[in-house]
Amino acid sequence: MGIISPVGVDSNGKALSTGSMKSLDKDDFLKLLVTKLTYQDPMKPMEDEAFIAELAQFSSLEQLQNLNNALVNSQQWDLMQMQTINNTMATGLIGKEVKATYNGVYLGDDNRPMINYTTTEQAAHIKVEIKNADGTVIRTLTQNDVPPGQSSVVWDGKDETGKRVSSGYYTIEISGESVGGTKITPSTFVTGRVNGVVYREGSAFLQVNGLEIPLSDISAINEANG
Length: 226
Description:
The termini are far apart. It contains 2 helices and 16 strands. Helix 1 runs antiparallel to helix 2. Among the domains are: 3-70, no CATH class; 101-190, Immunoglobulin-like, CATH 2.60.40.4070. It has helices at 26-39, 48-91, and strands at residues 3-4, 7-9, 15-17, 22-23, 97-101, 104-107, 114-119, 123-131, 137-146, 149-154, 168-178, 183-184, 189-200, 203-208, 211-214, 218-222. A hairpin with a 5-residue loop joins strand 2 (7-9) and strand 3 (15-17). Helix content is 26%, strand content 40%. The protein is elongated. With 226 residues, the protein is α+β, with helices and mostly antiparallel strands. A 5-stranded antiparallel sheet has the order 15-14-13-5-16. Strands 6, 8, 9, 11 and 12 form a 5-stranded antiparallel sheet that branches.
């Protein structure tokens, strides 16, 4: 759809530019065509070729706009269907054992997310960076002298200034240093039984070991033992 300057017309039906920019839609195009026909010289009517060409432009413009609207509606429908399928699948996982490798936590209005991680050796220092949607680190949590195996750290939902941040999904990045001074990368996988499902902004999150895991982060599903 073309971008043109808003126009007026003179007594001869010629367009006058105002200098500012706006988008030309099919209604504007039709108004221009009618105005041009209104002000044309009766002694010099529009040539058939020019008139047909302008009608063809109008028809093409209308078809493109209708096609664009149809694509937008189709994408919205596909997204709604996908969310419905995912939400239905999530409820079917309640009571099952799952394994997931997660890279974020959901902060609600009053919860304190627990961040679980696993190291294969003694760590002298562990650093957990919590980032917002822009990738900016809003809080850094640290732990010292962490034994090998599974450990956890609780985030109180506050930033570095002590202010509680808004609800939403936050990504995490965990790094560490061994007692020997080498860099280590703890893993953030979790295994456990799905105790429930919560819905955040249209997406399903599985409740596992105190965590809220997005359905897309699940890597394995098994029947629960006992």
